[in-house]
Write a structure and sequence with these properties.
6-stranded mixed β-sheet, Rossmann fold, alpha/beta, 19% strand, two-stranded antiparallel ribbon
């Protein structure tokens, strides 16, 4: 299976704001992103997207898309739409000391988000006949999917810095995975 991973375009949120699972608007029209991405994608690919509008709208602009809740970005609970300054150094230090296991009040941990993203991947791999698949989602789920496929330990997934509206391609084989391009 050829797997094409795309992070949503940039959003219209003040710098330094925690926005995870909040449904925030795009910073610009989709024209440039679609013009860049569409020629690089196989026309017959099956497409999936997060339900959050910043990913869903791009997925729809690229073709017929199936929305999957498991591709939603991590929820930061009470931290959502708060400036990092307001969250406070103590809380942010606790998160930084355990980026996979820490859960913001009312939110989910990165490990919990990864479980649902990897459940999506497992279902995808269990279905025969997928030649090419496009996934439009968020940094968190894309890191989990790519990191898992590339055999990286979860604590190294944060090293995968998916750029907005750029394409990462993985060739997934029964014996493993090949990274064909990253942020192209």
């Amino acid at each position: 299976m050829d797997l094409y991973l795309i992070r949503h375009p940039a959003v219209a949120v003040a710098p330094g704001t925690c926005y995870g699972a909040s449904d925030v608007p795009l910073a610009a029209p989709l024209d440039a992103a679609v013009s860049h991405l569409k020629p690089q994608l196989p026309s017959a690919a099956k497409r999936y997207a997060s339900p959050l509008s910043r990913a869903r709208l791009l997925g729809e602009a690229l073709g017929e898309v199936t929305i999957d809740e498991r591709l939603r970005e991590m929820s930061f609970g009470d931290w959502e739409m708060q400036p990092y300054e307001a969250i406070g150094k103590t809380a942010l230090d606790a998160w930084a000391s355990d980026p996979l296991g820490h859960r913001a009040p009312g939110g989910e941990s990165a490990a919990e988000m990864a479980v649902r993203a990897l459940a999506f991947l497992a279902d995808l791999q269990a279905r025969p006949g997928h030649g090419a698949v496009v996934v439009v989602a968020h940094g968190g789920p894309l890191r989990a999917i790519a990191g898992h496929l590339l055999g990286m330990p979860p604590e190294r997934w944060l090293a995968l810095d998916f750029a907005h509206a750029r394409l990462t391609q993985l060739q997934v084989e029964p014996w493993g995975c090949v990274l064909k391009r990253f942020n192209g």
